[in-house]
Amino acid sequence: MSARREPPGAATCLFLSCLLIACGPADPFGTAEPFQVRGGQFFKGALPTASVDAPAVTFLSMQNAVVLPGQAAKRLSARANTATSSLALALSDSGTGYWVVPLGPEDPQYVGEFTVESSIDFGLSLAEGPHLIRAVPIDEQHRAGAEAQTSVCVASRIPDNQHVCNPDAVVPDAVISLQWDSRSDVDLVVTTPEGREVSPKRPTVVPTDTRPTAEAAVIDRDSVFACQEDGLRQEDLVFQNRPVGAFRVAASLFDLCQAPGVRFRLRVFEAEGEGAERHLVEKDSFVGQFTPIEATGGLTAPVLITTWTF
Amino acid sequence: MRVPHMMVAALTALLSGSVFAQVEDVDGGASSGEVDAGEARVLPAERGPSLFTSITDGLAVTGYAQAQYEMHQDSVEQLRQGSNVLNQDRFLLRRGRVRVTGTWEYAQIVLEVDGNTTRAPVFGFRKAEVSLKWRASTDPGALALMLTGGLFDVPFGAELVESPRYRPFMERSLASRALFPGEPDLGVRLSLSWSFLRLTAAVVNGEPIDEPSAFTLRDANKGKDIVFRAGVDTKPTEHLHVTGGLSGLTGWGFHAGSDVSKGYVEWRDLNEDGQVQQYELTPVVAASVDPSVSFARWATAIDAAVSLDWRWGTTSLSGELVLATNLDRGFLPADPTVLSVDARELGWHVRLIHEFQKWAVIGVRFDQYNPSIDFFDNRKGKLIGSVQTVSTVSPLIGFKVPHGRLYLQYDVIVDRLARGTDGVPSDLRNDTFTARLQVDL
C-alpha cells in the first residue's frame, strides 16, 4: 500500500522539506535489507495483519532450513488459495519491512491452489540462530489473511559445525579466523609448531604425502580467489581437535583487486563448556592493514600478526 | 543551374578574399540542420583580401555551462548489482560546452565539445559538422540548400534538434530520450529552406551518442537509418509564430550475437547444504557461435508549435506525437530477435510556456511514453494485457540572471515500475527535482 502514489500535498511537502533539509527517502528497492526476495517488491513497515479469512496460505516450506552465512538464492516454496493475489514475506526480528510477490500459476497437483517459487537472499548481518519466515496472503482488495510461518536457522559465521542450529553437532576445539573489509585477495597463512605452512593453497596441517582425515585441521576456503567476490572475505583455520604448541599466524596480500587498501581482523576462538553448552569463545583479536605496495602476488613473506600458543 | 557558377565564384572569392561573412550568433540554428531565416544574419564582410582573415572573420566562439543539483525520490545509499550507484541526489555538471563555428558564404563548420559528469566525468565531441551551402539571394525567404557531413543532431521531430542551451525544460521528454538516447549521430544531411518550407533528410549510422550499447558512434550493420522531416516555419502575423512538421525514420537495429564458449562444470547446490554432491554437478558443453542479426525499425512523428507575443510576454504551446517500432534504445531497449515480437512504442508530449518579458519563465510539460504497447503481465500464470506507460508532469519556473538563467523543475512521474501489495504493477515513487544554473559564454 505504501507504494501507491502519495497525494499531491505529500509530494509538495516532500519537495519543500527537501529544499530545507537534506532528506533521504525510504529505500524503495530494499537493497539494504538483510532479508531479500528476488523479484519481490519491498514495502517499509510491519507485515499487514489479518483482516479477512478468505486469502490463505496452504503450504510454506524452505527446502533446507539451515541458512549458511550470507547465503543467496535459497528456494522458498509456497501455495495459496484462489482468493489470494499476492504473498507478503518477512523474516522475524530483522529488517525494516516486507516483500510482496505475486502468485504464480495454479499447481496441477493441488487444484485451486496457486504457487509461489521465490529465491531468498540472506544477508551476512543476520543474527545467527533460529528465525521465522512469515508469510501473509493478500487479496485483490489489499486485505490480509492469516499469517503462516516456517522456521529457518542461520548458521554461525565462525565455523562451529552448525552447532548453533543443531546442538548435537560437536563444536570444533579452536578456530583461527581472518576477515577483511574490501574485495581483495588476502590469504591466511599459519605455520604449525612442526614448521608446516598452511594456507589456502595448502589448506591442511597434515604433510603432503599423508591423506588428511575428517578430523584434520583445514582452512575452509580461498576467499576472493583471483579477485572473485564471494561475499564473505573470510578464511578460517578450523581445528576439530585441540591443537598444541605455538602457531605463527600471518596474513598475505596476494592482490588488492584495485581496492585502495584493505583492513583485516584476526580472531582466535577456543571452545569452552561441555556437551550441548560447549561453544566457541573469542580469546583475542588483532587488526591490521595492507597498502598497495604490499600486494606482491605472494612473492614476499606473509606479514606476521601473532604467535599464538594453544 | 547557378550552382556551378556560384561555387566557382565562392572559390574565387575565398582565394581573393573579396567575399566574407560575419556571424552575429550562430549557436542554436545550426544544430537543427535547417537553413533557416537566421542565416540572413550572415552578413557580407568588409575586410580586406587575405586568405587568413577570410577564415578567421567567419569564426565565432560560443558556449555555456549548466551546473545543477538533483534530488530523486528513489535515491538509495547503496550500489546496484554491477556496482552502479543508486544514489542520484547530487551536484553535477550537466553540460559544459564550447562551440566554434565558422560560417562563410558557401561553407560552414561547427565544432562543439562537451564536458559533463552526468554518468561519469567525460569530455568529447557533441558536434563536428562540415557543410557546403548555397543561397539564392540574401532575402530571408530565398531558396537555400545545405549539405552537411559529420556528427550532427538527427533531424527527427522538433524536440530532438532543440538546443539544450535554449530548451526551457531540463531534459527532453522520456519518449525522445528513449528513442534517441543522444541527439547527435554520424552521417550526411541535406537541408532545404524556401519561404516557410523546411525540408531535411539525413542518412546516419543509427548508433547515436549516449546509446547504452557497445557500438555508440560506430555501426555494426551495413544498413543505415534514413531520417527526414518536412515542416513549415511561418509568421502569419507580426506576433504569431507557427511551426510544424512531419518526420519519419527507417533503418536497422542490431542484435549482437555471442562468441564461441568453452565447456565447463556447473555446480548447483540443490540441497542447499553448501557441500558438493556428485548429482549437483552439471557439465555445460561448449556452445557454438550465436550469429548477430539485424532487425528493421521505423518511427514517425508529427510536431506543432504556436507562439504568441502579447502584452504580458510570449506564450507558446507545442506538442509532438511519435509512433515507433523496435526503436527504443534508451529506456527499455527493443530487440525483437529473441522473442520474435516487435516492440511498438508510443510517446507524446504537450508543453505550455510563458515568458515574462525576458525576466522570468513559467511552464509545464506533460509527457507520456509507452515502451511496449503489447506488454503482457503474468498473474497467477496467465498473461494479461498490461500497461507500461510512464507519465510525467513537469512544472517549471525560471529566472533570467546576468549572462544566464536559473531554472527549477519538479517532475511528477507516474509509472508501473513497482508492485502494490496485491502484486499488481503500480507506481514507483521516483519523482525528481532539479535546480539548474546556466551561464552563457
Describe, in plain words, how this protein is organized in 3D.
The complex is a heterodimer of chains A (310) and B (441). With 310 residues, chain A is mainly beta. Chain A is built from 1 helix and 19 strands. Chain A has one helix at 8-20, and strands spanning 35-37, 41-44, 57-62, 66-67, 74-81, 86-91, 97-102, 113-122, 129-138, 148-154, 174-180, 185-191, 197-198, 218-219, 234-239, 246-255, 262-272, 279-290, 303-309. In chain A, the strands form 4 sheets. Chain A has a 6-stranded mixed beta sheet, with no helix packed on it. In chain A, a hairpin with a 5-residue loop joins strand 6 and strand 7. The two termini of chain B are 41 Å apart. In chain B, strand 10 and strand 11 form a beta hairpin. With 441 residues, chain B is mostly beta strands. Chain B is globular. In chain B, the strands form 5 sheets. Chain B has a 16-stranded antiparallel β-barrel. The interface between A and B is large, with 42 and 37 residues.
Query: Count the helices of chain B. How many?
Result: 4
Q: Count interface residues per chain for the largest interface.
A: A-B, 42 and 37 residues
Radius of gyration of chain A: 24 Å
**Main sheet properties of chain A:** 6 strands, mixed
Q: What would you call the shape of chain B?
A: globular
Number of helices of chain A: 1
What is the overall silhouette of chain A?
Answer: elongated
Low-confidence stretches of chain A: 1-11, 17-25
End-to-end distance of chain A: 57 Å
H-E order of chain B: HEEHEEEEEHEEEEEEEEHEEEEEEEEE
